[in-house]
Amino acid sequence: MDKYKAPATCPVCGGEYEISTLSCKQCKSELNGRFEGCEFCSLNDGEKTFLSAFIKCRGNIKEVEKELGISYPTVRNRLDGIIARLGFEPRPDTSSIKEERKKVIQQLENGEITADEAAEVLKNLKF
Predict the structure, then answer these.
(1) How far apart are CA 3 and CA 51, in angstroms?
(2) How high is the pLDDT of residue 126?
(3) Quick one: how far is CA 111 from the chain centroid?
(4) End-to-end CA distance of the chain, in Å?
(5) Which listed residue, 50, 74, 81, 108, has the most CB atoms within 10 A of its CB?
(6) Do 75 and 83 form a contact (C-beta atoms < 8 A)?
(7) Are the CB atoms for 43 and 32 separated by under 8 Å?
(8) Alpha-carbon distance 122 to 99, whole Å?
């Protein structure tokens, strides 16, 4: 019997699938109900391929770049996309926080914001 991959989303409307039947491979019994798939089931094939490479490379972004033949920003963007798709809030990377801090200091020096406003913004920037 041929096995096919279940699609991640409905081809008609793009909606999320619900698992309604589980079948035992050994005894062929079936269980009907409303079941959730795993959190990774909703990832598309490209996202699963990326995630597999990321795990294979033990999270080393430079190695993922080589493995998939993509640039550092592309690796970061794809990783952030998967993090968001799984319902997690991606943490900003340190370079973007440093840039934001520089902007706040520049705004303060230019008189665009007050010291209190700058302090509040800087307090809320976290690694």
Answers:
(1) 23
(2) 67
(3) 38
(4) 51
(5) 50
(6) no
(7) no
(8) 12
- Angle CA 94–122–119, to nearest 5: 165
Which tens digit of pLDDT belongs to each residue from 35-51?
887 888 878 889 999 99
Burial of 20: CB neighbours in 10 Å, binned 0-12, 13-18, 19+: exposed
Whether the CB-CB separation of 107 and 119 falls below 8 Å is answered with no
Lowest mean pLDDT among 25-29, 36-40, 104-108: 36-40
| String of DSSP letters for 86-124 | TTPPPPPPHHHHHHHHHHHHHHHHTTSS-HHHHHHHHHH
Other beta carbons within 10 Å of 68: 16
**Residue 35, beta-bridge partner list:** 19
For residues 86 and 39, the answer to whether their CB atoms sit within 8 Å is yes
